[in-house]
Amino acid sequence: TTVFVSGATGFIASHVVEDLLKAGYKVIGSGRSQEKNEGLLKKFNNNPNLSMEIVEDIAAPNAFDKAFQRRGKEIKVVLHIASPVHFNTTDFEKDLLIPAVNGTKSILEAIKEYAADTVEKVVITSSVAALAAPADMQDVSSVVTEDSWNRDTWESCQTNAISAYCGSKKFAEKTAWDFLEANKSTVKFTLSTINPGFVFGPQLFTDSLKNGINSSSAIIAKLVSSKVDDKFYNYSGPFIDVRDVSKAHLVAFEKPECAGQRLFLCEDLFCSQEVLDILNVEFPQLRGKIAAGEPGSGSSFLTKHSCKCDNSKTKKLLGFKFFNFKDCIVDTASQLLEVQN
Ligand code: NDP
């Protein structure tokens, strides 16, 4: 079976590629340039079951046509993971909303045009951001589940980069469900979405940390390299380990019960204070040198500043146990320290 993975060079996607290859699948990845694609192939020791196609910019119309024209007939499963995840922009439509929505639209159009008879399963990497707007994530009275939808509109999400990113995930996911509804007589695939909370955990390749870092891992990196008196922003929300996010992408297309489902990946709620508590206890070389905040105050912060999450349906569907917060943070920080030294 051949699986297409968009954005294969990314933090989450490289774990997915690794898990797919380990499970015996053939993988066609997409990356933005020849150079990035060759770099990834090399990291995977030029595994003969992995090949790469160039998709330079998912914001461009018909971005996936060439790749699917060439390879579509081989592909049975499509995992669409590429989407912009950064917050350094004020042009929210151009840099976040349009690429996210167009990328989803163009990969589905390419399937319809070139692989309607071969693609059986599509999994879209959405987010908790599609389930709840930032304000609702911090509302103690809200309960986020697999049925929730971010209430922001195309206009109301464009107040800051975080809301706009969240909007981009909502509108991209909605594009996919609407596409399926409109084309169910022409395409044969079933759709599932993966909606993770904040994703932490080690990079598959430690080397990846040398050429910049993905946005969610940067939250941990900043705390690891904080100074004792630094003020820090207390991020809060659901978290999940990248190794579980990767595994869920496989289960999502392998288990028939996952068809048509939104899989909400959350092990527990977390906040930055709790990250600092773990770093200060588990890493003697950091203790007393990095920010401490108010040790032990994390859970009361969450009681006052966070929604609740109920993903019991997802846990039952997936049927495997998630990495806990402490192991996730210890593994993330150990790798970061390895690179610093
Ligand atoms: P990364 O930034 O590592 O991965 C994003 C991938 O998308 C990269 O391969 C990137 O390529 C590619 N990409 C972004 N914009 C474009 C574009 N315009 N054209 C072509 N490719 C593009 O982040 P993650 O691995 O964390 O994110 C992967 C997915 O998971 C995203 O859909 C994200 O929204 C979702 N997600 C992530 C969470 C997290 O906390 N990390 C939480 C919930 C969902 P390049 O690096 O070359 O630009």
- For the secondary structure, the number of strands is 12
Read across the widest sheet, the strand sequence of neighbours is: 3-2-1-4-5-7-10
Distance between the termini: 41 Å
CATH class: Alpha Beta
How much helix is in the residues? Answer: 40-55%
Elements, N to C (H/E): EHEHEHEHEHEHEEHEHEEHHEHH
Number of helices: 12
- Unreliable spans are none
The proportion of strand residues reads 15-25%
CATH topology: Rossmann fold
Q: What characteristic shape results from the CA principal axes? A: globular
Brief write-up:
The chain has 341 residues and is of the alpha/beta class. The chain has helices spanning 11-22, 34-43, 65-71, 92-114, 134-137, 161-183, 215-224, 242-254, 272-282, 298-305, 312-318, 325-340, and strands at 2-6, 26-31, 50-54, 77-80, 121-125, 143-144, 190-196, 198-200, 236-241, 262-265, 268-271, 308-309. It has a single domain, classed as 3-Layer(aba) Sandwich (Rossmann fold), CATH 3.40.50.
Task: Tell me what the structure shows.
This protein is an alpha/beta fold and 341 residues long. It has a single domain, classed as NAD(P)-binding Rossmann-like Domain (Rossmann fold), CATH 3.40.50.720. The chain is 42% helix and 16% strand. It is built from 12 helices and 12 strands. The strands form 3 sheets. Strands 3-2-1-4-5-7-10 form a 7-stranded parallel sheet, sandwiched between helices. Helix 1 packs across helix 8, helix 7 crosses helix 12 and helix 9 crosses helix 12. It binds NADPH dihydro-nicotinamide-adenine-dinucleotide phosphate. The site of NADPH dihydro-nicotinamide-adenine-dinucleotide phosphate has 26 residues, from helix 1 and strand 8.
